[in-house]
TrEMBL record:
Membrane-crossing segments per the record: none
GO MF term (any one): oxidoreductase activity
Lineage: Bacteria, Bacillati, Actinomycetota, Actinomycetes, Kitasatosporales
SUPFAM superfamilies with a match to the protein in the record: Flavoproteins
Domain NADPH-dependent FMN reductase-like positions: 36-181
Protein name as annotated: FMN reductase
Tree of life domain: Bacteria
InterPro entries documented for this protein: Flavoprotein-like_sf (IPR029039), FMN_Rdtase-like_dom (IPR005025), NAD(P)H-dep_reductase (IPR050712)
Any single GO CC term annotated in Swiss-Prot or TrEMBL for this entry: cytosol
Length: 225
């Protein structure tokens, strides 16, 4: 169980990597209909388990009429790890790489991040993908599906909450976390414990509540930064 705490922080100027994201990738706000969920696969390791977990939660999204999924796989859409200098426009090559990811994050109403735990945190490619973006996260909810050893990836999730708060995102309280995940999933790539499906529903229900609330709020007035 998690405790909820209130925090007050001093806002600083967001980093934009030399280009205002709103100019290059307009933030498309939804006009209604099912919530658009970007499911981000956080691991890029050869032989990774991440897609199994992502397929499972995407299947849950697919069964619902109130949301649709767009799976953002950082293996298929890698992003450079060198940022341009402040005030400098990214090269055409980098703009093309961002073009495969950024508009999809901009168009999302909400996010599900699927993450393993690497050294008590989340994988570097996921941090890189987060850091390339700014407005795309603003005023949107993020839910987590994590997996790992004894801790079930929860240490990665708690660190992600801190990072995403800086980006004006709202993280959903419930998580789905797979502890010792190798013993949880059966040969069909599904968790054998039906409690996992209950947890997925609770997570997606909360994401839906926040997704609608924040989509309506963003439509009513621009997010204050
Ligand atoms: C660099 C690295 C660090 C890891 N650190 C942890 C850890 O701190 N806690 C944990 O539970 N599992 C850890 N693991 C094990 C991962 O949970 C496990 O390998 C998992 O399959 C990684 O996700 P992936 O297969 O999608 O890459 C680590 C794995 C790697 C590759």
């Amino acid at each position: 169980m998690y405790a909820t705490v209130c925090t007050l922080y001093i806002q600083s100027t967001p980093y934009t990597h030399g280009v205002a994201h709103t100019e290059v990738f307009p933030m498309a706000d939804a006009t209604g209909g099912p919530l658009r969920i970007a499911v981000i696969i956080g691991s890029t390791r050869d032989g990774r388990f991440g897609p199994v977990v992502a397929d499972w939660i995407t299947g849950h999204i697919a069964e619902r009429e109130d949301m649709t999924a767009d799976v953002v796989d950082l293996v298929e859409t890698p992003l450079p790890t060198v940022f341009p200098a402040f005030g400098q426009t990214p090269s055409d090559e980098v703009v093309a790489q961002l073009g495969a990811v950024s508009p999809r994050l901009a168009e999302a109403d909400a996010f599900v991040i699927v993450t393993p735990e690497y050294n008590h945190s989340f994988p570097a490619p996921l941090k890189n993908a987060i850091d390339w973006h700014n407005e795309q996260w603003h005023g949107k909810p993020v839910g987590f599906v994590s997996y790992g050893g004894l801790a079930g990836g929860l240490r990665a999730v708690e660190q992600l909450r801190v990072v995403l708060a800086e980006l004006h995102a709202v993280t959903v309280r419930n998580t789905v976390s797979f502890h010792n995940y190798g013993e949880v999933f059966n040969a069909d790539g599904k968790p054998s414990d039906p409690g996992c499906d209950v947890a997925a529903k609770a997570l997606l229900d909360q994401l839906t509540w926040w997704g609608h609330a924040l989509r309506e709020a963003r439509r009513a007035r621009p997010y204050a930064v």
